[in-house]
Amino acid sequence: MTVEMLVCVRRVPDTSENEIALNREGNDIERDDLVYSINEWDNYAVEEALQMVAKAGGNVTVVTVGGDDDEEILRREMAMGANHGVLLCDEAFDGSDGKGIATILKAFVQKGHYDLILTGVQAEDGGAQVGGMLAAMLDYPFASLVNSIEVRDGKTLKIGREIEGGNKEMNEIDLPCVLSIQTGINEPRYVGMRGIRQVASLPVPTYGAAELGVEAGAVGASGAKVKRVDYFAPALGKGARMLEGSQEEIIDELLELVKAKGGLK
Amino acid sequence: MARIFAFIEHKSGVVSDTAGELLAAAKKIDPSATPTAIVAGSGPELEAACQSLCASFHEVWKIASEALAYPNAELIRKALVGVLPQGSIVLAAHNHFGIDLAPGLSIKLNAAFVSDVVSIEGLEGTWLKVVRQEFGGQVSAHMRCDLSPGAVIGVRPGAFHALENVTSSGQVVDKSSDAGTLTASRRYVETVVAEAGAVDITKHDVLVSIGRGIQEQENVAIAQELADVMGAAVSCSRPVVDAKWMEKSRQVGTSGKTVKPKVYLACGISGAFQHLAGVQGNAFLVAINKNPKAPIFQVADVGIVADLLEFLPELTNKIREMQSVSVK
Question: Would you tell me the crossing angle of helices B308-327 and A247-260 to the nearest 10 degrees?
Answer without folding.
Answer: 60
